[in-house]
Structure formats: C-alpha cells, structure tokens
Design brief:
Elements (H helix, E strand, L loop, with lengths): L7 H27 L9 H23 L7 H29 L2 H17 L2 H4 L1
Helix pairs in contact: 1-3, 1-4, 2-3, 2-4, 3-4
C-alpha cells in the first residue's frame, strides 16, 4: 500500500488544534483539581511572573506576526505560526503552574484566556 501524500496545511491545522485542545484540557484539570486548595505559598511573585510572561507572549506574537510579509515563503509563515502558538501555550502553562503552586484561580484563568486568544487570533487561516 502506497502512503498518502499529506498536505502541509492540514498538518499545520492539526498542530494548531492539538496545541489549543491540550491547553484547554490542562486548564480543566488544573481548575478542578487545584483551585481553592490551601498551599501556604506566597503568590505575589508568581502573579507578576505569569503576568509578565503573558504580556511578553502578546508582544512576541505581534512581533513575529509583523515579520510575515509579502516576501515570506510558505515555510516561513508556517514556522512563524508554530512559534506564535508555542508562545501562547507557554504563557498558559506558566499561569496554570502558578495556580497549581498557589491554589489561586486567577493565574490559570487569565493566562489560559490570553493563550487561547492568541491561538484563535493567529489560527492557520489567518497567517498567510
């Protein structure tokens, strides 16, 4: 049996969907298992860390998106998209870990909303 040739755009959509659904699934687990749990950990520093990472992800995504121009190849556009999604997923991950450590819901909720917003705003059909 001959292997099928797979379209690069469908692979990009699959990567995007996987990263987005993984972030949402991790949010659900963290929210239901760790929110409200007493940890005794000081949360002020972590609150600023996740906020800083989230802001950096937004600006980083804007910077990377600005690098996509008329001269960019399809491969460069796809790579830039994956980098933007990785920034969004990283911001969500930092917020979710902050919630695991502190038990506060705000880092998980805020960081996940920012991460999902970035992933939806920079979806594969909007990159090129």
């Amino acid at each position: 049996m001959r292997p099928q040739k797979v379209n690069a755009d469908s692979i990009l959509k699959l990567i995007h969907l996987t990263m987005l659904s993984g972030t949402l699934a991790f949010f659900a687990v963290v929210y239901f298992l760790f929110v409200g749990r007493e940890t005794g950990t000081e949360s002020e520093v972590l609150r600023w860390v996740w906020f800083g990472v989230a802001v950096a992800a937004v600006f980083g995504a804007g910077f990377l998106r600005g690098r996509i121009g008329g001269q960019s190849t399809e491969e460069e556009v796809r790579t830039t998209g994956i980098l933007i999604w990785a920034l969004a997923e990283g911001a969500a991950l930092i917020g979710l870990v902050s919630t695991i450590v502190t038990g506060e819901p705000m880092p998980a909720l805020g960081a996940t909303l920012i991460g999902v917003f970035l992933m939806v705003h920079h979806r594969p059909s909007q990159l090129g």
